[in-house]
Design a protein that fits this description.
Shape: globular
Strand content: 5-15%
Protein name: DNA polymerase I B, chloroplastic/mitochondrial
Strand order of the largest sheet: 6-7-5-10
Radius of gyration: 25 Å
Low-confidence stretches: 89-124, 425-436
Number of helices: 18
Helix content: 40-55%
Largest sheet: 4 strands, antiparallel
Distance between the termini: 43 Å
Keywords: DNA replication
Structural class: alpha+beta
Order of helices and strands: HEEHHHHHEEEHHHHHHHHHHHEEHEEE
InterPro entries: DNA-dir_DNA_pol_A_palm_dom, DNA/RNA_pol_sf, DNA_polymerase_A
Organism: Datura stramonium
Mean pLDDT: 76
Length: 436
């Protein structure tokens, strides 16, 4: 059973292949699936292991810009999010309540969706919905279809997390003595960065996206602590240096939340809110203060800041305006206009021929940034592993995960070790945290 093939049949049955006009998907197709419901087919006396189902297109033809290399419409996560629209990000029925995982809302998922759909149907803003909205007839049916596809994206995301990260961690081949997890490291990468496998510990969710608290499963040995030295926004800082981009350099020198500053430069209404003191770029609490006097930009304009963050990293890795328009769920024209407000142009690009221009653009993205970041992280690991005082205190280098260098050592010397880690021969650590 191929789930992707079935999804493609449901959404795009009858569509013509983009690369070969002589090929097209059938309007209806038979699939053999596991007989989990114990269906007894006609002429059979008992349920068989598999049974056959007929799938046909369930909506009008859908406009899509995302295709596979073979010419068929893609049904990847990004493609499904484009079908659903902004509801896939803005309406998250699996979120925790007030950040407390133990609090469970009384309203069921179905009730929450029904209530939300009812409110939206009274005053629908069609722009928030993806291409599935019109394909399913618009109105309430279009809204329900978009939310259903958004929920499908969520299920696929959870399934990927389980199959690609959680289940491999439970295998006997990854556990060593005393319950310690050991992975294999690969240093033969294009950029020089370390990559992990069996299990891929670098697949663990980012700290701010760890909604299921998976990171809490990784703990130090009894009596020890972990120090995580995070080179905060290292690649963007390297990009600013390599490109000598004055606006980026100025933003980093000003300090604070770089992505919030980018959002302020992208959106006039956010800049106006900052200038009027309605929101703060950042906040440094003083004794006795438990919350800022006005909302932080990242809280008040979370959606815009996410787009700014996406733009910052997309520029670093050469994503096109078409790719950004899909990520942001806006028109290509709007994405292009937004990028041009933040673009840093290489002087030789404008007059270069096609092949030379392509070479300049490729050389200006990805590998120099990631490679330089890998060099900085490698230097940090060498300095820390050679530090005599850290060795004397019993601390050792444990792992590198992207821009994080992780050490383990005795709890009683944690504070001194943190001070050493945060200032090892002038190598700047942008954030240092410890955990047990």
């Amino acid at each position: 059973m191929n789930v992707m093939t079935q999804l493609r049949q449901l959404f795009f049955g009858g569509i013509q292949n983009r690369r070969n006009i002589d090929e097209s998907l059938p309007n209806e197709k038979e699939f053999k699936v596991p007989n989990v419901d114990k269906v007894i087919e006609e002429g059979k006396k008992a349920p068989t292991k598999f049974h056959k189902i007929q799938l046909h297109r369930i909506c009008d033809p859908i406009d899509t810009e995302i295709y596979t290399a073979s010419g068929w419409p893609s049904v990847s996560g990004d493609a499904l999010k484009a079908l659903a629209g902004k509801v896939s990000a803005d309406i998250d029925i699996f979120d925790e309540v007030d950040g407390n995982a133990e609090e469970v809302p009384e309203t069921s998922i179905d009730e929450a969706l029904a209530t939300n759909n009812e409110a939206l149907s009274q005053n629908p803003e069609v722009s928030v919905y993806g291409s599935a909205y019109q394909a399913f007839g618009g109105g309430q049916k279009g809204i329900e279809a978009c939310h259903a596809i958004a929920a499908l994206c969520e299920v696929c995301s959870i399934d990927s997390l389980i199959s690609n990260f959680i289940l491999p961690l439970q295998g006997h081949d990854v556990s060593g003595e005393n319950g310690r997890i050991h992975c294999s490291l690969n240093i033969n990468t294009e950029t020089g960065r370390l990559s992990a496998r069996r299990p891929n510990l670098q697949n663990q969710p980012a700290l701010e996206k760890d909604r299921y608290k998976i990171r809490q499963a990784f703990v130090a040995a009894e009596g020890n602590s972990l120090i995580v030295a995070d080179y905060w926004q290292l690649e963007l800082r390297i990009l600013a240096h390599l490109a000598n981009c004055k606006s980026m350099l100025a933003a980093f020198r000003a300090g604070g939340d770089f992505h919030s500053r980018t959002a302020m430069n992208m959106y006039p209404h956010i800049r106006e809110a900052v200038e009027k003191g309605q929101v703060l770029l950042e906040w440094h609490p003083q004794p006795g203060e438990d919350k800022p006097p006005v909302p932080l930009l990242k809280d008040a304009f979370g959606s815009e800041r996410r787009k700014a963050k996406m733009l910052n990293f997309s520029i670093a890795y050469g994503k096109t305006t078409i790719g950004l328009s899909r990520d942001w769920k806006v028109s290509v024209k709007e994405a292009k206009e937004t990028v041009e407000r933040r673009a840093c142009w290489f002087p030789s690009v404008k007059n270069a021929t096609g092949s030379v221009k392509g070479h300049i653009e490729r050389a200006a993205t990805n590998t120099p940034v990631q490679g330089s970041a890998a060099d900085v992280a490698m230097c940090a690991m060498l300095e820390k592993s050679k530090n005599a005082r850290l060795k004397e205190l019993g601390w050792k280098l444990l792992l590198q995960v992207h821009d994080e260098v992780i050490l383990e050592g005795p709890e009683e010397s944690e504070k001194e070790a943190m001070a050493i880690v945060s200032d090892t021969k002038g190598i700047e650590i942008f954030a240092v945290n410890s955990g047990r």
